[in-house]
Amino acid sequence: MKTRVLSGLIMLPLLVILYLGGYVLFAACLVIGIMGVREFYNGFRAMDVRPNFAVACVAAVALYAVGLFGGDSAEWYMAWFFGVTVVSLLCLFNIEHRKLEDAMATITGIFYVIFFSFHVTLVDRTEYGLMIWLIVITAFGTDIMAYFSGYLLGKHKLCPHISPKKTIEGSIGGILGSVVLSGVFGYIFMPDVLVHCLIIGLLGGVISQLGDLTASVFKRKMGIKDYGNLIPGHGGILDRFDSVLFTGPMVYYYIVLVMGHIS
Amino acid sequence: MKTRVLSGLIMLPLLVILYLGGYVLFAACLVIGIMGVREFYNGFRAMDVRPNFAVACVAAVALYAVGLFGGDSAEWYMAWFFGVTVVSLLCLFNIEHRKLEDAMATITGIFYVIFFSFHVTLVDRTEYGLMIWLIVITAFGTDIMAYFSGYLLGKHKLCPHISPKKTIEGSIGGILGSVVLSGVFGYIFMPDVLVHCLIIGLLGGVISQLGDLTASVFKRKMGIKDYGNLIPGHGGILDRFDSVLFTGPMVYYYIVLVMGHIS
Lengths: 263, 263
What we know:
2 copies of one chain form a homodimer.
Chain A: H1 2-10, H2 12-20, H3 22-45, H4 53-69, H5 74-90, H6 100-124, H7 132-153, E1 157-159, E2 163-167, H8 168-189, H9 194-222, H10 237-241, H11 244-262
Helix pairs in contact in A: 3-4, 3-6, 4-5, 4-6, 5-6, 6-11, 7-8, 7-9, 7-11, 8-9, 9-11
């Protein structure tokens, strides 16, 4: 428990980055994405799968370049998806030293870590850029509230095969916590769209847990406990941001697809 | 050789579909994409990998719905990529019966087969819709010309570990054939953009061979000779369209990214 609280404090510099936004956030997301995908690929080593980290780095830089210069048109993003998939597959031409799994893990890692985390920068650039805070409020709020409510009330196991300590009571507490925290945020900073903040809180409470469990599944299958050891005792980048990978896109698509059409 | 020529004739109905374009082409691409991804997934069975075909079907229908109703905005396509990746990963929650490879193969198959083949419909809707013919001219033209020039002149192996029969002479002949055939097509039907047709012919001559070899790598790693047996003696859908998967996106991105900016 002490560790959990401390790990929260270590996130403080990130709050500054979120507050600054713009190019600072843009650069931070790129760096965190690349560090994250490296951890993800390292996890595959135990399975004797060797994804191509160089391809992921080029893909990350290319995606952020598209974000900067590609405008809002679909073509450049789609070309990026095509390019990432083709280049990852072409690595298999070194057929004697490559397995299909290497290319499939390269592709999965780029989309799961780099593309997902990229959405944080996209939210920052919408007309509701302030909602970037909801990405972390739903992710970390759910996590912390689920931990405490599970600690106090937890009785029924949620999914013992994936994450043995999680309970249904904790999961519900996490969702409620996310809704309340998002509501408080909306009430103070974005009262005009309070109801949207509450809905994002609800969705975020669910999807951040899915993000958490997805990372648990990966780690379990890879046979590792943590993705990394960046902050001693707190695991790696991906251990901290597994929920953000899911809440970032959720908030973005909520803004552009739901709010964009209502308002 | 007789088989090759015959397989050409069997493609005739496809020419009618290409000529009609519009919704007929749209529906045909959706069906071919779904049949193709099924063959692709079946190939994984020999490796004891079980991708989720149901997810691929839903993903295919969703992508074509985005193509119909999503307009030209990036958001819906990006949401599709996010959704495909998330849903494929969530299948791993059935952790005792699923391997990481199952989800990674699901993702790879959807992007490689469904997303790539979808570009044929996108070309049809550009202002240079006639260039849809260049997708097949470069794909099948390269294949046929490479076969004949390899047959007549072939001496030096191209990549014996991937495809033992292919020669450097055949490869060069295929590229030249693609340029000549695309040039003839451009001269007759699109003289205004003849030079673009020639460039597409050159790029297509290279990338269609990469598409062919990529399929060969997959089949070799999967331990199968052909993807399917749809047309007896001619393999499956993917055996016939392996090059189109690559030339389709190439022609599309050439039109929207290169020609779109020049003209």
